[in-house]
């Protein structure tokens, strides 16, 4: 079975992001970039499926600037076999990304598409769901366990109240959550080998997809600052403050 | 303008965030209809009919809609959506699972987790784990939105809307099927709706130690939350995670024990009214958002606090 994994280049999760003075966007100049953490988990899962003999080929796809190749090479160092970069300098909305991924799905005919549950930059949490609709595939979001048996995928997903088990018909779209696995680190020889793996570069126009968005960002502001608090010296003082100052207990 | 709110519910009851979503719909303005799609979901429909500001409740009662499987439910919502200017759902796991699929069927964008309504087409939403707030405007014919409950005060349950069955030809898409679920049972208030939340982090050290939060939570009638580290370490189940990728809470009082205050955790609780942090590291970033910080060993603080409250 071929597994397609969608990976996105985003700001590194450790970076404290700041808003530009003109409020047009966040300021990403000279900021460390990385693979979206949920995409790392998706890649790891694909690699484990390959190690189990379930997956036969892992194709990574990314939509973004040229530099997304860095994250694609990382995915290849972890075990992906080849990559497709759909190059664009525009920040596309999830619908446009899903439409492009749908074209790749049509070309590649994967048995399983793995995505992160959420990009940590836009916090959208949409792309996998949209792709499943466009491709007419089954959908499993927030996966914490994935097992493939024949034509079925047994899924455990994290939901508000706890865990839910679903059975999905393949081909399926699955978005992964934090507890699915712990991604490995790439080894140096694999990083070297990854440089030689095939990476095809395309553009949105090659797929004939209109990527214009009907949603425009009018401004980006910093969140409301909290008033600086105080340190209390003892439990007594804390209880007194909560009772008499904050009046919350 | 008319607005469709897709209720989140468990057939027998309505998920509280539905009432906050109706509040967001009121801010947009227009006739508000609520869709309750499930199986044997009359009780949830009756609860929805009581929500203030709701003009009509549409009920789609069919086995295919049980468990709100997106493949079955999205076509129904997308079909109904054509008669509305806006379709809203709470940003619960059900809402977030369903709405992008609805939007894709309608060929429109979906706007996630709005925290305010600026006008009928303009909304605010947090991005980058709440490090920034974006104001976005949509020119899509139907606006498909999920609503972050903490951004809107729930409407009261004093209404009395009409309940109507929707004519439907419900179909099981045959793509996915429900196998089972493990739902945490607790007598405590629901995390996202609690007035007081007590959370524990890696500092609690173990599952047994995590239970040391119970007596204080009992005394305060609090819900219990956790950091990702505490969930990953297996101290508590996933549904207790507070943060960017867990639950978003904004109680009157949030008390964090042994949580360092990573941005991803803060994203889920920094809109709480009063924040207390107990941490033995005085440099812990959680103190930057805490109204009251106590630099101490949490295991010494817990019994004292319980006694003195
Ligand atoms: C993609 C992604 C998503 C994430 N989503 C979330 C999320 O939704 N929610 C979330 O919480 N995190 C999330 N994280 C993880 C986050 O980055 C942090 O790793 C996590 O919040 C740390 O948890 P913690 O504060 O419990 O642990 P630590 O950072 O290890 O902090 C433990 C704290 O306990 C204190 N301590 C230890 N012993 C004691 C004691 N006896 N008394 C008092 N204090 C003590 C220590 O001083 C320390 O400050 C996410 C990370 C990523 C990459
Ligand atoms: N530009 C992109 N390129 C490749 N994959 C993407 C892109 N945007 C989103 N995705 C995938 O969709 C997941 C969820 O993203 P989002 O819906 O943007 O929160 C990510 O974890 C990726 O797997």
From TrEMBL, chain A:
Pfam families tied to this protein: ETF (PF01012)
Keyword match Magnesium: no
Matches recorded under InterPro entries: ETF_a/b_N, ETF_b, ETF_beta_N, Rossmann-like_a/b/a_fold
GO MF annotations in UniProt: electron transfer activity
Domain Electron transfer flavoprotein alpha/beta-subunit N-terminal, first and last residues per copy: 23-211
Cofactor entry: AMP
Cross-referenced SMART domains: ETF
GO annotation, biological process: carboxylic acid catabolic process
Entry keyword set: Electron transport, Transport
Family the UniProt entry places it in: Belongs to the ETF beta-subunit/FixA family.
Function as written in the Swiss-Prot or TrEMBL entry: The electron transfer flavoprotein serves as a specific electron acceptor for other dehydrogenases. It transfers the electrons to the main respiratory chain via ETF-ubiquinone oxidoreductase (ETF dehydrogenase).
Subunit structure: Heterodimer of an alpha and a beta subunit.
Protein name listed in UniProt: Electron transfer flavoprotein subunit beta
UniProtKB/TrEMBL annotation, chain B:
InterPro entries cross-referenced by the UniProt entry: DHS-like_NAD/FAD-binding_dom, ETF_a/b_N, ETF_a/FixB, ETF_alpha_N, ETF_asu_C, ETF_asu_C_CS, Rossmann-like_a/b/a_fold
PROSITE patterns assigned: ETF_ALPHA
Residues given in the record as FAD binding sites: 202, 227-228, 241-245, 258-265, 279
SMART domains, alphabetized: ETF
Range of residues in the leader sequence: none
Required cofactor names: FAD
A Pfam family hit: ETF_alpha
Ranges for domain Electron transfer flavoprotein alpha/beta-subunit N-terminal: 3-182
GO biological-process terms attached to the record: fatty acid beta-oxidation using acyl-CoA dehydrogenase
Annotated cofactor note: Binds 1 FAD per dimer.
Quaternary data: Heterodimer of an alpha and a beta subunit.
Family: Belongs to the ETF alpha-subunit/FixB family.
Identification of the protein by name: Electron transfer flavoprotein subunit alpha
Organism of derivation: Allopseudospirillum japonicum
Lineage of the species this protein comes from: Bacteria, Pseudomonadati, Pseudomonadota, Gammaproteobacteria, Oceanospirillales
């Amino acid at each position: 079975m071929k597994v397609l994994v969608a990976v996105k280049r985003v700001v590194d999760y450790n970076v404290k992001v700041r808003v530009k003075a003109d409020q047009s966007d966040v300021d990403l100049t000279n900021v460390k970039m990385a693979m979206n953490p949920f995409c790392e988990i998706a890649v790891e899962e694909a690699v484990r499926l390959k190690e189990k003999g379930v997956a036969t080929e892992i194709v990574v796809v990314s939509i973004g600037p040229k530099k997304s190749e860095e994250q694609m090479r990382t995915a290849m160092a972890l075990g992906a076999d080849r990559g497709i970069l759909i190059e664009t300098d525009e920040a596309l909305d999830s619908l446009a990304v899903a439409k492009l991924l749908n074209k790749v799905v049509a070309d590649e005919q994967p048995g399983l598409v793995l995505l992160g549950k959420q990009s940590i930059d836009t916090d959208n949490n949409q792309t996998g769901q949209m792709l499943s609709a466009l491709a007419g595939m089954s959908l499993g979001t927030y996966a914490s366990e994935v097992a493939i048996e024949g034509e079925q995928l047994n899924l455990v997903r994290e939901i508000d109240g706890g865990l839910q088990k679903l059975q999905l018909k393949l081909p399926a779209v699955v978005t992964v959550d934090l507890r699915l696995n712990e991604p490995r680190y790439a080894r140096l020889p694999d990083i070297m080998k990854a440089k030689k793996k095939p990476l095809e570069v395309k553009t949105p126009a090659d797929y004939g997809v209109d990527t214009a968005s009907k949603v425009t960002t009018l401004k980006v502001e910093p969140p409301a600052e909290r008033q600086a608090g105080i340190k209390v010296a003892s439990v007594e003082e804390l209880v007194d403050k909560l009772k008499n100052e904050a009046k919350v207990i | 303008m008319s607005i469709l709110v897709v209720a989140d519910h468990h057939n027998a009851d309505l998920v509280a965030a539905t009432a906050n979503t109706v509040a967001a719909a009121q801010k947009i303005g227009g006739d508000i209809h609520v869709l309750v799609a499930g199986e044997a979901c009359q009780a949830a429909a009756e609860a929805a009919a009581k929500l203030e500001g709701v003009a009509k409740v549409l009920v789609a009662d069919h086995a295919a809609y049980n468990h709100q499987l997106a493949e079955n439910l999205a076509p129904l919502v997308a079909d109904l959506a054509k008669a509305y200017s806006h379709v809203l759902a709470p940003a619960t796991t059900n809402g977030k699972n369903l709405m992008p699929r609805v939007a894709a069927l309608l060929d429109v964008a979906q706007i996630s987790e709005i925290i305010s309504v600026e006008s009928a087409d303009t909304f605010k939403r947090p991005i980058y784990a709440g490090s920034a707030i974006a104001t976005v405007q949509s020119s899509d014919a139907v606006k498909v939105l999920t609503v972050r409950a903490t951004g809107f005060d729930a409407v009261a349950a004093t209404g009395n809307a009409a309940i109507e069955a929707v004519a439907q030809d419900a179909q099981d898409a045959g793509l996915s099927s429900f196998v089972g679920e493990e739902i945490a049972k607790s007598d405590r208030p629901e995390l996202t709706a609690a007035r007081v939340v007590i959370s524990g982090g890696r500092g609690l050290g173990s599952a047994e130690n995590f239970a040391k939060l119970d007596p204080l939570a009992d005394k305060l009638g609090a819900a219990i939350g956790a950091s990702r580290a505490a969930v990953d370490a297996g101290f508590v189940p996933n549904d207790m995670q507070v943060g960017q990728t867990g639950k978003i809470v904004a109680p009157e009082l949030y008390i964090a024990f042994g949580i360092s205050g990573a941005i991803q955790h803060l994203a889920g609780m920094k809109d709480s009214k009063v924040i207390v942090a107990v941490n033995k590291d005085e440099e812990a970033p959680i103190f930057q958002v805490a109204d009251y910080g106590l630099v101490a060993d949490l295991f010494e603080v817990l019994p004292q606090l319980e006694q003195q409250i």
